[in-house]
Fold these 4 entries.
Entry 1:
Amino acid sequence: MSSRKFIILLCIIVLTPSLIWAGEPVPDEIRRVINRGYLGQGGLNLDKNINRAELSAVVVRLLGLEDEAKNFKGQIPFKDVMGFQKGWAAPYVALAYREGIIQGVNPTTFNPKGQVSYVEMLTIFMRILGYEDGIDFVKYPDDHFIKSIEIGLGQVYMDMNHKVTRRDVALTIEKLLDLSLKNEDTTLIEKLDKIPNPVKREEKIYMSNLDFNTSIAGIFKGQLKGRDDFSDYKVELLSKEYDRGELVIYDKVSVDKDGVFKIWNFDISWTAKFRGYQYRAYNSRGELILEGELR
């Protein structure tokens, strides 16, 4: 390929990132998992091994606690999580640990980049259903693997030590959603559907005078409208696609009383443009009220 053709191709990729993701079709057998956001909203990367940090985020979503994770201000029990990939996984790990679903490798270490075996994933998902260590399974890993097969979650032909991919996780979640909670007639998906949607929208709020530019310097400004006083409201600029299992937050600013806001000098690198940009607006109670893509 000539240098000129390469430059043209590179420009097309930068200017039209959605075409890249559009070329990654969602398999029908995991469409529900993807559409409900349990595996994240970015590129599927189905053949990529999932790590312990990413699985923690999946767990929190399956517990219906992602909104709490986004606003988490509690303590992080493991020293190695805050320094891992700018600390994005810290609240997810903390909540998954708090709920007794995922443990550390020792009291102070979590090993967020560690890969996950098939039986480890099954054990974690069974805990979400309410099954307990020392009661429902004792001898690891045999008891755990056998129990997963008994309840219809595990596959007998799978190697329990196999390091799972995102595809393996998605396929297992598809089965997990339709399984009943321990000693209950309610399935996991029925429980999740009863959890109130944390995204509360104020229908009259809208954005006006929008200006978004990434050509020379990053500039995003505009004005919220729909009420007289926007004190304590905030606007957030973040990536449209996920990076290593999580959205990248570029900045979050307070809105003036009249709704005017401005964010500048954010990342406009090739990588950032490839991910794309979106905005979110929050009211004075921290509730998401408005969101949209930026082009």
Entry 2:
Amino acid sequence: MSGDKMIALNRKALHDYEILERVEAGLVLTGTEIKSIRSGRVEIREAYVRPLGNELWLINAHIPPYPAGGIYNHEPTRPRKLLLHRDQMANLAAEAAQRGLTIVALKLYIRNHVAKVELGLAKGKKLHDKRRAIIDRDRDREARRALQRRV
């Protein structure tokens, strides 16, 4: 992903969910939304995707109003349409509905002057799974430190 400008990363989703599949999607935005995104003030911690009709919509992504937007500003948490191929939308929606999975926003970034969002088909982790992930991460960190000390 060289040349991408990372705007927001949903670290909470990586902790709370096991990501089974990742998909890149475009966003339908207004002029003040893209200006606000470029200034880097976006929050996607609570963002998820919901299928409505034959389309997928990003819900709860908070893009604050652009300070110089005036009367043309947007609503910060309005639903935003996602741009995907028809078969990708159908597969994601069907898989999420069948297997009881959630589609969450993982990253928001700008690639080639276009805002993109990385979606993840996710399965919720249980509390003991979260604890196990923390323990494993700590063990790996300690092992790396021990190797660095030996060299």
Entry 3:
Amino acid sequence: MDLLMDLIATLSRWSRSHLYDISLAIMATLLVLFGPSINAWVQRSIASLNFVLRTLIFVLVCAVGYGLALVYLTPFLAHGLGYFTNYTLAPVLLLVFFVIGVMADRR
């Protein structure tokens, strides 16, 4: 049991030093998974507008919206994950990536 706890603590310490990159990977994967749904909702919402205005809004949502979400939400996620202890961070990250994998498989 001590070997398992040491392994978890070692993985958590390593993960903690790469927390920003891990958070960026999580955010990018979530945007890839939910991007088509968001795009479809935006397209339905702006379908009655002029072509030029629709195109402008769609470009703003995709380029600016997703870019800002990736840049500004990643530090919040990294900060939130930083609250986990060395005995909980690695299992939580494994669970998060497992859930994201299941969601990706179902889409």
Entry 4:
Amino acid sequence: MAIRGTTVLLTVKTQTGTDGFNKPVYTEITVPVENVLIGEPKTEDIINELQLSGKKLAYTLAVPKGDTHDWTDTKVQFFGQVFRTIGEPTQGIDELIPLSWNKKVKVEHYEG
């Protein structure tokens, strides 16, 4: 049996102009990203993230190779809930990773 991820909904921000103070104005759209693995973090990872950033790590996502979306500081929806990414994604070298996923993204519950 092959490992297969699930589809998550990622909020993508696109700059559509600037406001009267010359600050960027963004439009948000939600796009599906298929074959994402959703994993439960280890207890020590939860504690470390809380101590380092003050954020409570809820899940770790494995993003498939070839995905070009920006996963930094954005919302992700799955399991009927909304999450926000924490920090920068970590990425491995495609050729050195035997499976279909090469990027790891941490998320926290989002109250917004």
